[in-house]
Amino acid sequence: MKPRDRLRIAAQKSGRLSDAGRDLLARSGLRFRESRDRLFCYGETEPVDLLLVRDDDIPGLIAEGVCDLGIVGRNVLREQSLEYARRGERAPFSELRTLGFGRCRLSIAVPQDFLYTGPASLAGTRIATSYPALMADWLDRNGVKAEVVTLSGSVEIAPKLGKADVICDLVSTGATLAANQLREVASILDSEAVLAGPAEALQDERGELAAQLLRRLDGVLEVRDSKLVMLQVDRAELDQVVQLLPAANAPTVMAIEGNAQAVALQALCRGAFSWQQLEDIKRAGARGLMILPVEQMLA
Ligand code: ATP
Ligand code: MG
């Protein structure tokens, strides 16, 4: 490979990961000039270009050194890593960061009348999937012998067509499974979009460019996952409430003018709050609970 002085990132051209992926790059300060064919986008703000491709091609592009980084589902990356592993080789790419979107799971689903009591129930069946290496690996780890039928799409209709007895496919809401009278019985991989890069550190100028991009990305991910929590609570219940907060650091506790009994609390927290968590915090004594998004942050 010739040395390059510009970094190249591969992302999905169109599909479930494209919008959120482009958004993340934009938030990291990268702007691209779209080319007419929309495959190669020249980076205008940094020496970082974007290649828009099919998601399945991303690990291979990194392996060949055509691209340096890629935004791809963990399912695709792990499948292709396992293909190397099963040949006794080390994959030339690795997962650098988790990106928090495109969440789904690779699950085994069976027809409604199939009796599933555990992995052993799959012995001797035909399993349709687009992820044969992940499937074979799971079967090996569970000591089950079954036939893996590789299909590139429409896996969910394989049982109806008589091509397979059960399937292993990506699931997010489960609506597709339900529409095909299939029942999810086991999840073999939790997936989300990840930033992939070469297993060996990048040489020449690209190493420094990649490190700078990762620093920015970490900042963007940290802000996105941070929330400012504000509330009031009686001093007697303060400890209980603080224990329920996924606080990043010690919360700020402030006196309330004219109310010696209560305090105001402000805390930077990680991750999203579920309604259940909010109700627990309220039940522990919090009043006027507010969760605010963080716009920018400089530690
Ligand atoms: P391409 O044309 O790029 O090959 P594709 O059809 O293979 O596209 P998409 O359906 O856009 O891919 O899915 C891309 C990724 O989105 C998946 O590999 C997976 O990581 C993630 N994803 C999240 N939820 C789901 C879901 N319910 N079904 C399929 N993929 C999902
Ligand atoms: Mg694909």
UniProtKB/TrEMBL annotation:
Histidine biosynthesis HisG C-terminal domain: residues covered: 225-295
Gene Ontology molecular function, alphabetical: ATP phosphoribosyltransferase activity
Subcellular location as annotated: Cytoplasm
PROSITE patterns linked to this entry: ATP_P_PHORIBOSYLTR
Source taxon at top rank: Bacteria
UniProt keyword terms in alphabetical order: Amino-acid biosynthesis, ATP-binding, Cytoplasm, Glycosyltransferase, Histidine biosynthesis, Magnesium, Metal-binding, Nucleotide-binding, Transferase
Residue ranges of domain ATP phosphoribosyltransferase catalytic in the record: 54-218
Regulation acting on activity, per entry: Feedback inhibited by histidine.
EC number of the protein: 2.4.2.17
Transmembrane segments: none
Principal place of residence: cytoplasm
Classification via InterPro entries: ATP-PRT_HisG_long, ATP_PRibTrfase_cat, ATP_PRibTrfase_CS, ATP_PRibTrfase_HisG, HisG_C, N-reg_PII-like_a/b, N-reg_PII/ATP_PRibTrfase_C
NCBIfam families: hisG, HisG_C-term
Reported function: Catalyzes the condensation of ATP and 5-phosphoribose 1-diphosphate to form N'-(5'-phosphoribosyl)-ATP (PR-ATP). Has a crucial role in the pathway because the rate of histidine biosynthesis seems to be controlled primarily by regulation of HisG enzymatic activity.
The name this protein goes by in its record: ATP phosphoribosyltransferase
Source species: Pseudomarimonas salicorniae
